[in-house]
Amino acid sequence: KDGIKTISAPEQPEQAVRLGEEEIVLRISRSYQDSMEESHPAEVELIIDESRLSSNKRRMRIETQIMTHGQMIGARRLLARGVDPRVARPISITHVNQATPRTKAANILDMIGMFSIMAAFLCNMYVAIDATAGERERGSLEPLLLNPASRWSLVGGKWLATIAFGCTGEVLMLLCTAFAMQQIPLEGLGMRLEFGFWEAAQIFFVMLPLVLFAGAGQILLSSYAKSFKEAQTYLSTALFLPTLPGIFLMVNPMQPEGWMKVVPMLSHQFLSTAILRGDPLELDFVLMASAGALLCTAVSLWVTVRLFRSESFFFRH
After folding, report:
1. What pLDDT is stored for residue 316 in this prediction?
2. pTM for the whole structure
3. H and E: helices and strands count for the chain
4. Which of 25, 95, 100, 156 has a CB 3.0–4.6 Å from the CB of 13, allowing a cystine?
């Protein structure tokens, strides 16, 4: 019943479970029949190994089936004595589900927010590497630093070129995702995803401060590398960080707290989820998330300019 298949028990159930030959063994006591006839609690044993975490889900499923069977027997005993079984149920729980087809689809496709965050860091990575470590490896960075242009102008130009590719990649990712989502027949599953131009535009403008921070942070990190491959190693390793908030929320869903609203990537993951669910965006949440990303952008650019002003840093071997 309910997908549970019974098989013959091993001769030594304790040893079979201990050795991992069987995950769970149900043993019915010899007094089971007599207890049932006398309307006494009948004892059954579940032989398990609690150190095997993989068997916990099956154990809970079997226990649920046993408890449901016991409740049916108890109801029949009450009816046989002329007592309404509902007397033994003083409280009845009824679920009033407020989930809509759109919110159900948003929960499944929450990875769109993670893809948007990844695009903010991935699409401009190689431009940031080429503008710093690449120029140092080619020997074109030293003549550039000898020009009378201010260091803010040099860093700003490299940063603008980097974020231009980041914005382009973010737009392409959202457009391709919107087109692909329209081809998935979610209606057959009782779900509905509204991800069109308006939702894509909202996610883009929410992610824009994060793109600015990604470009500044990657220029700063790649400035420490002496070669293109070294910078590629640094930034490829750092790409794992933007995925952490999405993975964390998938494993441990939660509501955003105050401090989370200013943490880049984590706050943007919450905002993208709200857009996909169709929830109204809180203005203070958007402003705090943008302020956090812009503050990190300003700090990264300031540190990068300080490095560009240090001749000993760039001419070291």
Report:
1. 54
2. 0.65
3. 15, 2
4. 25
